[in-house]
Amino acid sequence: MAPHTAAHARHTAAPAPAPDRRRAWLITALIVTFMVINFADKSVLGLAAVPIMDELNLSNSTYGLISSSFYFLFSLSGLLVGFLSTSLSSRVLLFGMTLLWAVAQLPVLAVASVPTLLVGRILLGAAEGPAASMSMHALYKWFPPERRALPSALQIGGAALGTLIAAPLVTWLIEAYGWRSAYAVLAAVSAIWALVWWQAGHDGPYDHARTGTRTRTRTGTGTGKGDGPRLPYRRLLSTGTVLGSIASAFGAAWALSLSHAWLPAYLRTELDMSAESAATTISVISGYGLLLLLAISPVVDALKARGVSSRWSSGAAQSIAVCVAACAMAAFPFIESTGARLILIGLAFGTIAIAVPLHYMTTAEVVPTSQRGAVFGIVAGIGTLPGLVAPSLTGHLIDAGETPAHGYTAAFLTAAAVMLVAGLLALTSIRPERDAHRLGLDHRPAGGAH
């Protein structure tokens, strides 16, 4: 081999990371716990909605505003921390976020009022905005691309598990000790997790942005800074795959924000459920979502192993899930049978669980590793914008309707329309192989892009 060729090989070939499966699964367990706490924190207001509204004499519109306030800084925070992830370790980022979760629960414990509820939710939203994308980014540092489906499903499964656990536990705390007790317990749990993570959480061997290796782009130009190939964000964000992944996230987030803010109140006030029955129903829906997540990951891995393109194995799966949830959302307000209505409610709010890990997977396939955290932050920031609109809009629709039932129906039909459009956009836009080839991130012939 000629000297210049050998030098080129040294610059272009990154050493294979040393796997540490034990540590990888320890980090996975910590991140799953992180997501459990994240969604418990996020769900507490909705689970306590009826007693809080009664005690503070809140209208539906005011409660909807408080619910939406969680997202005032959510997207912006996700964007900013996404870019910070290119220079700060996941250990530092997740530690800081979780400490803020604990602090955010404190204002309402001092004084229960609309202003303190708003301040607490805004701070919590700012601290949780980057949580899903940055914990996924941290997880990806411990697994190669071909082994990410199951860890990704488990990470998002932590969200479903969080609601599954939080619904009965938080409801029990609220019923037994008052709604403030739930806030106090969650503050303590968040602080404990932060301390454990500081001791055990480290960046993994697949963190290419920190390996010190130089990687050249398809055109042969490297960054010269040891952080892998870098492309203009305008090019990355304008690919059909990233735009479709954002659409998928947007549709799922609309249903998810309604689930956190209004589903507990809907079950109690419109279906006449007790607090315990509503909590059980929400747990069952979360359990259904968790089972879907655990079932879809081996299917995606098996399809990819057989040569099925990511467009169909992970792109179509998330798109169809959002469309199915949309159809169920449009149907259940008109169903008289309680059993059939609950099944459709489960489909509407549980099926979207599939979309969340898969839109990260499809995005990751068309983004250089050194820019993945930033793009994840952008996708999460834009994809979760429904949280800023849906809860508040729903409160206004309930107050404006002839009856609360009419208001809820209008809100669910609006959600269904948004979700159906988002799912169809994702289905027609997500093509990771084609976009990766166009960006020069793989070396397959053009005919291999699907």
Key structural traits:
450 residues; mainly alpha; 22 helices; 0% strand; globular; disordered N terminus; disordered C terminus
Average residue pLDDT = 83
| Main beta-sheet strand count, sense and barrel state | none
Number of strands: 0
> Which blocks of ≥5 consecutive residues have pLDDT under 50?
1-17, 209-227, 443-450
Q: Shape from CA axes?
A: globular
What's the helix count? 22
Give the SSE order as H and E letters.
HHHHHHHHHHHHHHHHHHHHHH
> What distance separates the N and C termini?
36 Å
Please state the structural category: mainly alpha
Work out the oligomeric state of the chains in this entry. single chain
C-alpha Rg, in Å? 22 Å
Helix fraction?
A: over 70%
Q: What is the beta-strand fraction?
A: under 5%
Q: Would you give an account of this structure?
A:
This protein has 450 residues and is mainly α. Helices cover 74% and strands 0% of the residues. The chain has helices at residues 3-12, 21-47, 49-56, 60-69, 74-84, 90-104, 107-110, 114-128, 131-140, 149-177, 179-200, 233-237, 240-261, 263-269, 275-305, 310-331, 338-350, 355-364, 369-383, 386-400, 404-429, 432-439. Helix 2 packs parallel to helix 10 (149-177), helix 4 (60-69) runs parallel beside helix 8 and helix 5 (74-84) runs antiparallel to helix 19 (369-383). The longest helix is centred in the middle third of the chain and has 31 residues, at 275-305. The chain is globular. Mean pLDDT is 83; it is low at 1-17, 209-227 and 443-450.
